[in-house]
Design a protein that fits this description.
Acetalactate_synth_ssu, four-stranded antiparallel sheet, Alpha-Beta Plaits, about 180 residues, alpha+beta, elongated, transferase, EC 2.2.1.6, 2 domains
Length: about 180
């Protein structure tokens, strides 16, 4: 089928883009993260969220949690290409495997204000169960953990009372139950 230049073909329903949380267990050694990131950038895939930390010190293994968006075919390509990297021990798609997973994110939110704005920031923080980790006469730094959507709502509300800066960790995810991810 010939498509006019400049007009992208419509995605079929089965090709609609989906957000996936993928975990990758890798050797904790120099250059591994760069290789994983290179796989994404080299093929034009985007990373929405990325977290990495050593999780098994004795075996020197790190866990990379990646949130990405793509068609089912692209997500399958990403998983297959990740699995072929030499330092990769395991790749799990927490979204596609239909596993019951827990996802959380942490954010530090700095808010500045005086008077009523300051009181409203404290009320909002209390409503969202955010902890005050720093306070001055003119500002607060709140710590909030939860689902990404909850953090987005908190940040949006804080914008109206003096949001100054936000620092976010990205998503950490794990499956429920006794089986490893």
């Amino acid at each position: 089928m010939n498509q006019p230049i400049g007009i992208a073909p419509a995605l079929r329903p089965e090709e609609a883009k989906e957000k996936h949380t993928i975990t990758v267990l890798v050797d904790n050694e120099p250059g591994v993260l760069a290789r994983v990131i290179g796989l994404f950038s080299g093929r034009g895939y985007n990373i929405d969220s990325l977290t990495v930390s050593e999780t098994e010190h004795e075996r020197s293994l790190s866990r990379i949690t990646i949130v990405t968006t793509g068609t089912p075919m692209v997500i399958d390509q990403i998983k297959n290409q990740l699995a072929r990297l030499v330092p990769v021990h395991r790749v799990a798609d927490l979204t596609a495997d239909m596993r019951d997973a827990v996802e959380r994110e942490l954010a530090l939110v700095k808010v500045s204000g005086r008077g009523e704005q300051r009181l409203e920031a404290l009320r909002l923080a209390q409503a969202f169960d955010a902890r005050t980790i720093d306070a001055t006469l003119t500002s607060f730094v709140f710590e909030i953990t939860g689902a990404t959507a909850e953090i987005e709502r908190f940040i949006a509300l804080m914008a109206s009372v003096g949001l100054v800066e936000v620092s976010r960790t990205g998503i950490a995810a794990i499956t429920r139950g006794s089986d490893p991810t």
